[in-house]
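Dear H.,

Thanks for agreeing to be a second pair of eyes. The structure we're designing against is below in token form, covering all 161 positions.
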């Protein structure tokens, strides 16, 4: 089980640091613009509209969760795939991100739709329009086996690529 209390300060960060938190995922343009290339690397992009809770995922996120690509998404169902402690931490950071307009990074454990459990890095940032947070978006990256057992990982230094 991943320790989640208290949530370390490095989990939440101001939006001007977004590039710093995405730096370990910096890829050449050919890979960064290719859904298939990202999915091959265990990386996916996501977007959640806050008014409707509509989710948009690239292929890599579907793969991480063990769901059929392009299948209909219901946020409550996908959130239920997070292990309880991870889900609680994610929801708290999500609410904090929306309220205070901050991004966050969190390593979570999820139960794949087809069984089995894996560790995933979640990077999220709010989208602000007309002085209000309207959506969250970011990156989900599968963590290699063994990373779940290594509890002292710094989100800034871990890199799959």
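And this is the sequence the design step returned. I haven't edited it by hand at all.
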């Amino acid at each position: 089980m991943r320790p989640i209390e208290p949530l370390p300060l490095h989990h939440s960060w101001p939006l001007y640091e977004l590039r710093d938190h995405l730096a370990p995922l910096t890829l050449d343009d050919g890979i960064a613009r290719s859904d298939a290339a990202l999915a091959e690397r265990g990386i996916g992009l996501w977007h959640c509209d806050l008014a409707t809770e509509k989710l948009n995922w690239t292929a890599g996120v579907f793969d991480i969760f063990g769901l059929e690509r392009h299948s209909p998404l219901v946020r409550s169902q996908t959130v239920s795939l997070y292990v309880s402690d991870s889900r609680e931490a994610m929801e708290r950071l999500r609410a904090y991100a929306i309220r205070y307009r901050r991004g966050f990074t969190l390593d979570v454990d999820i139960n794949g739709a087809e069984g089995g459990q894996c560790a995933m890095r979640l990077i999220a940032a709010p989208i602000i329009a007309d002085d209000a947070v309207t959506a969250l978006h970011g990156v989900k990256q599968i963590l290699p086996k063994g990373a779940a057992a290594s509890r002292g990982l710094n989100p800034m230094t871990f890199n799959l690529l």
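Two observations from my side: Residues 40 and 60 are 7 Å apart (CA to CA). The first strand starts at residue 12 and ends at 14.

Warmly,
E.
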